[in-house]
Amino acid sequence: MTRLITHLRHVDLAVPDYDRQREFYAGVWGLTEVATDSGLSFLAAEGSPEQYVVRLRRADDKRLDLVAFGADSPAEVDALAERLGRAGVRLISQPGAVDTPGGGYGFRFFDIDGRTIEVSADVAVRGHRRLEAKEAVPVRLSHVVLNSPDLDATRRWYERHLDFALSDTLSSPRMGEVMHFMRCNPQHHSVALAKGPHTSLHHISFEMRGLDEYMYGTGRLLRAGVRMIWGPGRHLAGDNTFSYFLDPHGNTVEYTTELELLDEDTWHPSVHDFSRPEVTDQWGTANPMNELVARESFNDPDRGVFVAPPV
């Protein structure tokens, strides 16, 4: 199918302890700071053509500033803005020049839960490179998972307005459906929606070069004393590896690799019972999924709901 949104670009965070977060992401986590500007830090992944995959902003309150997606052309940006406007979606800005590294043409709007979403095209491609064997830093941004208090309403909104498709669902006999994996391209998911008590960031995931690099990176973080809350293991839905850590402000961040690519013409979504251990971790190497792990992923209630970031 033809979609106006093509891929995930970057995830932007507001952080009270800006210097500590900057040191974490540009240090042990393995991103590269490519630009700074008055309390803003733009961090790239070495293997990614995106200008940056994480933006940090110095702020009094912790919040998710925005999630940014790409489109193929300014015409498709305009078409999406017109569609959302007709449907009554609250636009934060009209399509125009994007004033961040790489420039481009885009606009912002609120999703159903009040998160700020940006869609842009014509962003300059960043010079990037092929990572070498044993180089255990992120190749690119893999996906973002968002907590929603009304899981199915949020799924329907992303399907209707942004053309995301459902890849798979996690469910259990006791809790019902708890996560929808959503795609905007053949990657199993660029966004996942998790059932949570409030609107918040669940986690941000970064793709590593391969299994060795994923494990080397996991080991580097453990040796540095970064708290790992779950992993290392391999999920069934998406077939990707996982090691989940907490950044200095309690946001969950993940190293992953080998996320499944789908044949969209033949794929049919499945409902996986995550109460079965082999669903959450095929390998059986990770600590069990339990309420403590889930509670960490709920994160703090987002203070940016229906409040656009200042930049």
TrEMBL record:
Record GO terms (molecular function): dioxygenase activity; lyase activity
SUPFAM superfamilies, per the entry: Glyoxalase/Bleomycin resistance protein/Dihydroxybiphenyl dioxygenase
InterPro entries hit by this protein: Fosfomycin_Res_Enzymes (IPR051332), Glyas_Bleomycin-R_OHBP_Dase (IPR029068), Glyas_Fos-R_dOase_dom (IPR004360), VOC_core (IPR037523)
Swiss-Prot/TrEMBL keywords: Dioxygenase, Lyase, Oxidoreductase
Highest rank taxon of the organism: Bacteria
Keyword Oxidoreductase belongs to the record: yes
Domain (VOC): residue spans on this chain: 7-122, 140-258
Family matches, as CDD domains: BphC5-RrK37_N_like (cd08362)
Protein's name according to its UniProt entry: Catechol 2,3-dioxygenase-like lactoylglutathione lyase family enzyme
Organism this protein belongs to: Actinomadura namibiensis
